[in-house]
Amino acid sequence: MRRARVYAGLLESRSLGWAQLGLARCQFADGDYTATLETLQSLLDENPKFMAAYDLMARTHEAMGQPDETRKALEAAVSISPHMVRRLRHLGQVAFDTGDIAAAEKTFRQVVAKAKYSEFRDPEDHLNLVRALVSKGDAAGAAGVLRDLERSSRSGPGTDACRAYSAALIQSLNGNGEAAAAELANAAKALEACASLSRGMKLNLVKSCLENGLDQQAMQMLDAMTEDSASGITHADAQALYEKAGRSDLAHNEGDSVERYLDDLVKQAALRSGQGDQRGAVQVLKAAVKRRPENPGLMSALASAMLRLMADSGWDGPLAEQCAGLLVRLRKADPQHAMLAGLSSQYISLRTKSNQASAISSAE
Hints:
The chain is mainly α.
């Protein structure tokens, strides 16, 4: 909010495009999407060629679940500056997601042509074009794009995954179920050694594996994504994906397996604490909270372990800050939690002792 006030103050005195964009970015980060759009529209009214404003406007409409408006913002930007590969990719994906396969094909062809011999080339561009062609039933055209991918892309896990996935889509279109399943398995295997491919590509591959009976591969990919905080995929998202695919059995197993895993972590933490390894107990419980950040029981267990560690080893500023944040989250999640008052009292007591010790040390 402080940064937003700085930008707003600058705008009171004069019109500065970069300050308006900065204000819009702060509003977007705060989740105030209506204000973001108002600020961006004001900016574009004065500076209709301010390209970054169109990109943020598209992201804002996307966050609001407005695909048609997202597409309009991107199309406006592309009409002014048609050579930005990243923006074209975004437009192609939005067109595909909204069911305009012809527009998606046209845009992905542009992306492939523009990025093919540049530093911005990405094997996913060919894969996206294959997906568009397969969606319109053009097996021959898709096969031609796959051959071009094999000729023009550097070898590596990412290329291997996109090649195999593209081949699977073509085989499936041609009615070769066994060959499609084999290529999907190859794609999933290649994906294990590649972290650079997009979240959307990975999720599409998971769905394709589920549709072709490759449950194990689908579950392994989703497990890897849920364990990676940067992916943005939670176990709740994984369960929802299984449900949407008509696999409520896997959704149930997902929930059960996570709970068993968390129970094991809590037992490990208790064992380490009993052995005097308080720091090890804290690390184990941090992993548990990472998997279930909304669970009050795990939050209270981690806060208790942190306080026990500081009681044994002395006040630790960074750890204390983490603990304080955890107690705030716990209070929001469950204001009546049975352990909340006691944990808060322990935290205050330890902090007071630390401050008194510091004061005595300074006096000496």
